[in-house]
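Fold this: Oxidoreductase
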Amino acid sequence: MNELLKVNYDNDRITLSARELHEFLGIKSVFTTWFNRMCEYGFQESNDFLPILEESSGGRPLTDYEITLDMAKEIAMIQRSDKGKEVRQYFLELERRWNSPEAVMNRALEYSRKQVKALMEEKQGLIEENNQLKPKALFADAVSASNESILIGQLAKLIRQNGYEIGQNRLFEWMRENEYLIKKGERYNQPTQKSMDLGLFEVKERTNTNPDGSTRITLTTKVTGKGQVYFINKFLS
């Protein structure tokens, strides 16, 4: 299968660049106008897309959006053009391969390997200490022992599992209102200086090469192990 557009396989879902899709479809209107019009079809930030800041070949900052495969399929169908039909068929094939029994099994095995590794690396002293703590402290120490950062949406699931009902969108909103994430501007939804000083987040930077040879930088905000403990205890208290 020829690669029509570059896609990212991360956090159990497929995403891609809205700007690259806009370019492939040959849309004549400017990107920002087009994307805002597409959002009128009911797509929601955090669920269907995330804003990312990238740098153009000329060094100018540009806002792109990392969109889900489902959103990309709907956009392609809306265009009603040969390009739209072609790329939608490409997305359907990607989805078919992603959901094949072999791919699902491989992801499950990889997840299991990570879980086993994390358990084996726990220190005996931490286990003994955890036995004396309350359930919420047990969970908090287990998280702090992990070196892996997680997305804010995954943090919302962890908080729900510990008895506080909150979804991804509400958690984003709460973090912005409480000055853990930036409310507006080019750094929208990125950590505030206060959050970074506390060690609650880290920003993962990824450099991608565009079809024209230019590069773009993708910034993804993730919650550190310390941040997971901090926010879970804050909601539980």
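The first helix runs from residue 18 to 25. The beta strands are 7-10, 13-17, 49-55, 61-68, 201-209, 215-223.
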